[in-house]
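Researcher: Structure prediction, please.
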Amino acid sequence: MSDLDDIRDILGFEPYRGAPIDWKAASQALGARIPSDFRDLIEATGAGKIGYDTLLLQPFAINANYDQIRRHQRQVRDLEIIWEDEKDDDPEEQTKPLIFDEPGIRPILWGASGLGFYLYWVARSDTDPATWQIAVEPARGGQWEFHPGTATNLLLRLLRGEATTLYLQSLRNAEQHSFTPAR
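Model: Predicted structure follows.
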């Protein structure tokens, strides 16, 4: 079984029946290729909510809360403002992970939580998106978390309780094992 099949078994979602997604336009809007596992996941589910608060974003979703492009642009703009304001602070008070100072590396948003967490790919120019790691930003302070693997692999490990995380522990609870499509 694939990670997507296992996620489908855990969440029990119905197949996505919305409009086709223009992945080429989405990649252009984000400035990077979108990992194939994520494309497969969104084509299977569409945008929606996992459990009570974890939002799975979709490029160009009709509901603005689930629109990956719009939310990514806003989130990255906010991060840039925060990081610019902090650049003269003591290093231990700065929230920007050092990895994002490396040339050709930037965050690309793909998920969010009503609890204030954001899920990003650590996008590296000129590398296969399947090799990107996942970053979790705790918007209310705290250290970013970094996870190996793809978005679907991380989601599966979170749902099974196999991923070590401070911020997304609620996904392991059975009452969170549902999927509500965006409306």
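Model: The helical segments are 3-11, 23-30, 36-45, 68-86, 151-160.
Researcher: Thanks, that helps.
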